[in-house]
Fold this protein.
Amino acid sequence: MPFVTDPLPQRLKLIHGFGAVAFGVKDSGFSFFLLIFYNQALGMDAGTVSLALALALLIDAFVDPLLGNLSDRTWSRWGRRLPWLYAAPIPLAFAWVFLWHPPGGGTPSFWELLAIAVSVRVLLSACEVPSVSLLPEITADYDERTTLFRYRFLFGWCGGLLMMVLAYFVLMPSAEALLEPEGYLWFGMIGATLMVISVLGSALGQHKLVAGYPETRAPPFTWRGAFSEIIDAFSERAFLIFAAGALAAYISQGLTFSLTNYINVFVWRFDTVELQFYPIVLFLSVIVMFFIVGPMHRRFGKPRSAVIGAIGSLVVILIPFSLYLAGLWPETGTRRSAIQFYAFLLVANTLGVVVMISATSMIAEIVEAYQERTGRRAEGSFYSGNWFVQKCATGGGILIGGQVIALSGLAPNTSPAEVPLEVIHNIVWLYGAAIVLLGLVAAYWLGRFPIGREEHEARLKTLDIAARGDIDGGTIVP
């Protein structure tokens, strides 16, 4: 039985969503600032940095399913998830600071960067996997789950955007400051503080609701049993279809985020004020998303909403780059150019976040499909499976981003005014080709997701009948 069967109280939505601030802080740092920090500020080769970050993601991706399996098997008076949420955030905060101020100062080696990045990602997963695994336990309602994901995405984006605002307005308030190491230490310390407050605050706020021994005790953890259950869960047909679409969407997102500062500084030639408006535009797009994704899911369902978002976002964001290459765009570096680009970005990012919410919300329905087939609930395994897909894909996106910079011919420590036009065009062409392919693949597979509202509600009735002991209750397999 879910913890809440009535409509969710507003307080619970806010407290549960608040826990995602830590993920937003991490995502903003890794996606927008880490590559340019190690490449341009510390002088490491972009290909080397992207390889280290991609390997860290890959290692973390294989650890995530084990964390999810352990979370599903945790047996305590605080429930399955809370012990993890109380234990992980403090070590995570220290690792986050070291990422932005490597021990010993100066430029770290490849292996030092890899070790720090792996530590941050594993500890963040130990917070995020148990936190998001609470969602299908809190409610089984199709629309209420979308609501909880809306709040998680809202708080996650707010956490990341707050760090961007601090970076662009206070810590690195110019294009030149982005290329220097001084502001990044405070970036790490402030982010670490936010991580601790969000994870512990959300856990404490939900403690009374979710604490308590689980209804059933899972078998003890064994390596063989863990991998067997993980493989079984990942073979769920609906999860495989979701994973194929999400993989492409996450690669595209990782590629876009890793190249954002390069594109803003070197392609669009933003100055200090224009860079400061970037997080504001992203925040506005998330607010718009917050109000449209619920009606979209009610009218179109989650799979079709994901398709609309993927195709719409791709078409909109390609327009300014196409006009730029065709020589029809206003002169870059001007206020008119920035305003026009931000108008397109507002729409494109709104639709892009709709894709991510729609896709992630699908996982909650996979939990009941797996329960119907096996008789077991495995929220942790499926959400860690999502992180497995996301991290492999995001690592791939960052790796591709590093290779785009390397193939374009952009040298480290280069002033935007000194970059040849040919190099800028190379960045735009390589980036544009990649996101077209990835966007079409994401739209195709997410549109084929087999569980809609009707299938989900029918499955809940079947599971309820089975729980009452009616063995003839039937089954619905997606």
Residues 470-478 have pLDDT under 50 and may be disordered. The two ends are 22 Å apart (CA to CA).
